[in-house]
Automatic annotation (TrEMBL):
It comes from Pseudonocardia hierapolitana. This is UMF1 family MFS transporter. Residues 1-428 form the Major facilitator superfamily (MFS) profile domain. GO terms for cellular component: plasma membrane. Keywords: Membrane, Transmembrane, Transmembrane helix, Transport.
Amino acid sequence: MTGPATVVDRSRVLAWGLWDWGSAAFHAVVLTFVFSVYLTDVVGDGSPAAGAALGYAIGAAGLVIALLAPVIGQRADASGRRKLSTGVWTACTVATMAGLFAIRDDPAYLWPGLVLLAAGSVFAELAQVSYNAMLAQVSTPATIGRVSGFGWAMGYVGGIVLLLVVYYGFVAGDGPAAGLAGLPRADGFNVRVVALVAAAWFLVFALPLLLCVPEAPPAPDGPARLGVLGAYRALFADLGALYREDRHTVYFLGASALFRDGLAAIFTVGSVLAVGVYGIGAGDVLLFGVAANVVAATGAVAGGRLEDRVGPKRVIVASLLGMIAAATVLLVVSGPLMFWVFGLALVLFVGPAQSSSRTFLARLARPGREGQLFGLYATTGRAVSFLAPSLFGLFVSLFDAQRAGIVGIVLVLVAGLLALWPVRPPAMSAAAG
């Protein structure tokens, strides 16, 4: 089975979705809400240099991903080893997460911690390339939207559950012992244990995909397995051929790179704005993260079902318009209540935009070339990953106010919307209704 499935196997869909559930351990806990904060505010003593170092590390990781993603996708397609590729890079991610336990509360550990965090970002993104390419193996043309939405929702819900476990079990409280587990805060021990818990979480929930979803053999007329330089020559040749055959796919890759950068920036700077602008308590940021994941998961499921009726482009356009409206309101309101209301309104549209962007590409991909196309998807996304954070920082500097940084994110979302507007949507299956 190299192309889309003809019948949906619910157990395989569940196994596929559980990988998304498990990956929240890295994205929501390690990268966004817990360990990155520990590195900059505790290990790095909250200095501006520590924050800048985090930006450099994540930026370097983005460059590595941009260089490797298309090669990894092409090689997985050619060898028929998408599941194996997903498993290998997942194992590497888990190993780096577990390695963070060694990062003590000492400035000397800042750069080792950042290197592990950046390496984990690279491994997690490479795993995502092959994982996304497996979407066609567990869905049909008529159900690909709802299956993709289910996967995104599983990721959000997994983040919700684990954030609650982490908050109440290992972080809550003000005394020397943290959370219900009563672990000592000294030397960052409680947060370091969180890294081990997150690593185990990802490992356990990745296993169903590796055990229950069969490997897809390479397509008979699929690409040959190439070396690194050969893969890049094939990449540029295929990109040129893709432009000649269906330039709208290339247009979509460019448009999605823009608006996906805006989506990523929302989560990257959201906690900073919550505390620095709207007065949300530092501990309550985790609780807002839980609520945001609930809302985003609901939006992903609803958007996936709607997409199977109206197509992915309409869902993405509506989601971008909703995000732009909510972010504009946040520019002029103040206080924790307004942030909760309009911040949650903003993330409601993030889930459908993410899910439908993935299925937009999956509907366009030729059988046997999904991994290579999703590698290019990852590469184009990383190619402009500096844009929204840079514009955020520029507007903060120009107006000497963190709130003004929202303008930079809105501009990127608007640019993505305008670039997407003329893109022809993929053909819908007649079975989709």
